[in-house]
Write a structure and sequence with these properties.
The complex is a heterodimer of chains A (about 325) and B (about 725).
Chain A lengths: L4 E3 L4 H9 L4 E4 L3 H9 L7 E4 L8 E4 L3 E5 L4 H5 L2 H6 L1 H9 L3 H6 L2 H5 L53 H6 L3 E6 L2 E6 H4 L18 E8 L6 E7 L10 E10 L2 E10 L6 E2 L1 H7 L6 H11 L11 H21 L1
Parallel strand pairs in A: 1-3, 2-3
Antiparallel strand pairs in A: 4-5, 5-8, 6-7, 6-8, 9-10, 10-11, 11-12
Helix pairs in contact in A: 10-11, 11-12
Chain B lengths: L18 H5 L15 E7 L5 E7 L1 H4 L4 E6 L11 E2 L2 E2 L9 E2 L5 E7 L2 H8 L3 E6 L13 E3 L7 E2 L2 H6 L3 E9 L11 E7 L2 E6 L4 H11 L7 E4 L15 H13 L3 E4 L2 H7 L6 E9 L5 E13 L20 E11 L12 H19 L3 H7 L17 H12 L11 E3 L2 E11 L7 E8 L4 E4 L9 H13 L6 E4 L16 H23 L16 E4 L2 E4 L2 E7 H7 L4 E8 L15 E11 L5 E11 L6 H21 L29 E5 L17 H4 L1 H13 L5 E2 L8
Parallel strand pairs in B: 1-15, 11-31, 13-14, 17-18, 22-23, 29-30
Antiparallel strand pairs in B: 1-7, 2-6, 2-8, 3-7, 4-5, 9-18, 10-18, 11-16, 12-13, 12-15, 16-17, 19-20, 20-28, 21-22, 21-27, 24-25, 25-26, 28-29
Classes of the chains: A alpha+beta (about 325), B alpha+beta (about 725).
Pfam families (chain A): CO_deh_flav_C, FAD_binding_5
Organism (chain A): Streptomyces sulfonofaciens
GO molecular function, one term (chain A): FAD binding
Chain lengths: ~325, ~725
Amino acid sequence: MSALTYVRPDGVDEAIALVSADAGAAFLAGGTTQLDLLLKDGVIENSTLVDIGRLPLTGTSLLDGAVLRIGALTTMADLAEDPVVRERLPFVREALLAGASIQLRNMATIGGNLLQRTRCRYFRDRTVAACNKRRPGTGCAAVIGPARMHAILGADQNCIALHASDLCVPLVALDAEVRVQGPGGERTVPLTDFYVLPGRSPDVEHVLGHGEMITHVDVPLPPATSRSRYLKVRDRASYEFALASAAAALVVEDGTIAEARLALGGVGTVPWRAGEAEEMLRGVPATTAMFRAAARAALRDPYTLPGTAFKVELAQRTLVRVLEDLAEAAS
Amino acid sequence: MTAVSSGKLLGEPVDRIDGHLKVTGGAPYPSDFSYPDMAHAALVQSTVAAGTIRSLDTAGALVAPGVLTVITHENAPALAEGPMTNIGPSPRFPLADNRILHHGQHVAVVVAETPEQARDAARLVRVEYDEAAPVLGVGNPDAPVLTDPYGMESSRGDVEAALAASDVQYDETFHMAPETNNPLGLFATVARWEDGRVTVHDSSQWPAMARQSIATVFGLPESAVRVLVPYLGGGFGAGLRTWPHAILAVLAARMLERPVKLVLTRPQMFTSVGHRPESVQRLRIGATTDGRLLAVDHEATATRGAEEMNIEPITMGTPDAYAWPSAATHDRLAALNIPNPGAMRAPGHAEGGFALESALDEISYRIGMDPLELRLRNHAEVHPSTGLPWSSNALRDCYRVGAERFGWSARPAEPRSLRDGAWLVGQGMAGVTFSRWAAVCRAQVSVGRDGAALVRCAGTDIGTGTYTITAQLAAELLGLDVEQVRVELGDSDLPLAPQSGGSGLALALSGAVEDAARNLLRAFLDTVRDDDSSPLRGRSLDEVAVTGGRIHLANDPSAGEDYAAILDRHGLRELVADGEKDPSPPEGLSMAPAGAFAAQFAEVRVHEELGIVRVSRLASAVDAGRVLNEKTARSQVIGAMVLGIGMALLEETSFDAGGRIANATLGDYLIPAHADVPDLDVAFVGGPDAFNAVGVKGLGEVGVVGVPAAIANAVHHATGRRIRSLPITLDKLL
């Protein structure tokens, strides 16, 4: 097979330099995405893998008591056990534990989770000719396929590939920021701006340039009075991606919603922040009618296919269920 | 000699005798075998479902590092057609010409020094196709349909008249998605030629058939082919054919004059080793308002691959499942541009059981009768088709014991009457009448001077416990401890055995072992016939018994001697005896040989808003005749129940419009995870069968059959929604 160079540097700068200098190089974090796509599916080609597993980017710290900084190489399993996550970010913990399997969570990293590639089987099967994400301009075979595990928001006939992360759903709701380091230095990108809608270029998924890596994720903590929940809906009880999921954090004061943060998973080509629905809920009574109206707004203008049409209703019900649970707990 | 029923070993939950080997990695599976100088093969598969190969460019692959050869239809030698087997003709050889009959058809095999080189070079083979429109979908009007393809249609009574005269006229249609077997062990073939003979390690459930197939295809006497599969990483029916990839591996080894290993990838497992076909069934039943079933008419259509054959006897079990006076069955088989289906655990029965037991549940609601009561009222006291008494039938006990353990009597009849918060709770049940199948089997048993026994048979243990029950049975028959019995299986050079399939091997093999053990004891008695120093001198088989490693007089245990003493005194290293049993019912048999029976009960929770279905309880009461090992038998049944959960709620092989399987990975094709499986309750009822050898009835498949209907019936009880299409995914309940 094609020769593959594998290197495992000890420092961030060294890793960045290695990848920046080599157009065929890629970072290797937890491994699921890169190794599956490279070795098993053969849909990406790299000549060098730079294993960043030894870089000192693990663990969390609390900045000014207000922001949780998460090292990009912290594992999903470790983050789920973090005391700040347990106490202040229960829906982040729920999303982590609803994702993947125990074995994968022990290996998978937070940075890797953010950068996971879609599971679309049309993207991952190199014998399928039409895939705009894999080969721009060739079309999308998934839109005439069974397309059950595909996106309905941020999607169109050019690409319906789902962003399947659970973790990203509460993180976009929380206005998390991604700390990026690259050959040009460091920068910070809001997670909501980190992902790029497929549009005409489904091959471009995020704003990272070649040689840039995520070093940390900063998560602003919600108010102590906030209650949060993540609900994931799927046919199989575990180890399956979401058909629909909802993350919500509410601050309810005297029956009125003071603050709402909402996002959806299992439906978007990117982790889907439901901004309009948040606006609708701010300052209104926490009632089922309001929740339903907000859920309708969150699912406005979907791109559906026979296989995905049910997700419009399912995602709305999922969001309403989460909001009702939170409102009930607050009353 | 010792009657089988008196022993203490049979039925005991003895740990698997191969368990230690397996958990320590010492059990060699087919893909574990390697030879010096072995080359590795990788498949290239068609990316269209119908048409012809216009051009095939192997130049890039041939110059890739390590590549030894690329075999295509252009350079493959002509091979003979494979033989007819007792489950149909051999698969079509895909490199016979340039025609493409399904997506994923093998079009080339690349052989290289390493597996990585072979896989990499396989991606360099350029194939261009002249594509034709594929014929897909079970109801496709363009599909050629065979009528009565298995010659198994049956009819008794005037069904149409009985239906027309019935108070209750049930007529519904059921659809079931195709499913894929997905044994954990990737199927592999390792072939090695030497002096015109070939040794093949193959993922087969049937070494004798594999040997015959390879011998026929390559024009060899069967004695020149040896197929070895001492251990198999699961089969679920996928190993009941000698598939094209195995033929290609043997061919590559012959062409290269080197051993060749070919291991399928997981996606290739979906296109290369069969699947349960998609099916549609129409079921018409006539009944009285007081719950007497008068007539049934069952029509089923399954799919097959173009120019292939598969036996999916969906309607077979229906006529004898209940005491209906009139019954008719109709089988159809539609040819599509799909990989040929094959047997998947309880082929036909599982589909037919879903429709039949759903229908009975529906009828019970139409007439306002408890579903269990409806089944009891129509219980077949005698075998309905022949009117003969069953060789055994404890189905009533299955219903009773299953219902007691499940707590059926506390179930309120009304749908949507049970609830736990946001979850609707429902309970459903199904009965199972499984068919009996068995074929001729041989075995060899020997005892040596160490007093230990060796049992040898070509049959395989596909993970079900065959090694263990064989050792238990031989120990019982020879009066030994289980530890004193060694068992050799999975080698076509050993005495012939039928497939490990059709729930038939335990039945067939136990008959052969019993016969061989009897012959062996006779040989020992023959040895001392004129031996003055033997207390057994001149004794016949019916005068002796065996215990504690000794043969002794049945009426005087002190008068006897052990095996070793006889062998020593006569200067023999061992005595060996062959056994054979033809388990076919003889002409004029005054009873109807029975298969297993079961009653299965399910409780589900359905989220009222989100449609999520979770099975919260599942119970089976099974009449499998004599249970040889309570532990491995239970494992068989719980494994089957898990398969039933998958069939009911999760499993679907998704073909897209181009005939490509869109979910050919274990990440995309959903089988139950541990979290989907509740505690499974299994009870065995009934006793030894009166006709079958050793009283055994096969139990490898019965545990699947009622589960999908029991779950679907429970979903109806929970929600009021009747789902006649599997799997019941949550979108169907929104």
